[in-house]
Amino acid sequence: MSIQIRSFNQQEDFSLVSSFLVETYQPGDLLTNWLQPRWEYMYFHPFTEALDLSKIGIAEDDGKIVGVVHFEHAEWQVFFQIRPGYEYIKTILFDYAEENFRGITENTERSIRAIYINDFDADLIAIAKVHGYQIWTELGESMSKYLLNKPTPELRLPDG
Are 96 and 113 in contact (CB under 8 A)? Predict the structure, then answer.
């Protein structure tokens, strides 16, 4: 297996990444990757019009997407999406992020990079610590899910 990282191609890769996110979603998981609608929201958001989307990195194994490293509304925000079974590419994606993402924040006016890491991703947390990153709770991020652990009541609509 030889993992290659290439630049995002706007003409071809939006739908490929969308399919990757749908394929890697596992009901009941910890939401390790973004849900596809969030990717669509990011991609078409007006804030991304001024950003260089070719900086997004696509990790492939023999032509199959196994990881994506990208920003959301600013190039200093870094997110990782990884196909289950390919967790070993986290270092490769992290190195790509360090080489390609950085920006000026509005609130601090400093050049920074914020790596968004799930609380349960001990491997990525360890990689970030080795690279000198610190946890900054002011830029926390959360995704939530609503558990339906009881039967849903039957709903009856009025006629018409």
Answer: no
> For 121-130, what is each residue's pLDDT tens digit?
999 999 999 9
112-116-121 Cα angle (round to 5): 135
DSSP per residue, 88-140 = GGHHHHHHHHHHH--EE-TTT-SEE-EE---TT-HHHHHHHHHTT----GGG-
Q: How far is CA 67 from the centre of its chain?
A: 9
Of residues 102, 97, 99, the one with CA closest to residue 117: 97
Residues 109, 124 contacting (CB under 8 angstroms): no
Structure confidence by residue, pLDDT tens digits, 21-56: 999 998 776 778 999 999 999 999 998 998 999 999
Smallest CA-to-CA distance from 54 within 39, 42, 71, 29 is with 71
Instruction: Give bridge partners of residue 57 from the DSSP assignment.
Output: 7, 69
The count of C-alpha atoms lying within 13 angstroms of the C-alpha of 29, restricted to the half-sphere facing its C-beta, is 13
Non-local (6+) Cβ contacts of 19 within 8 A are: none
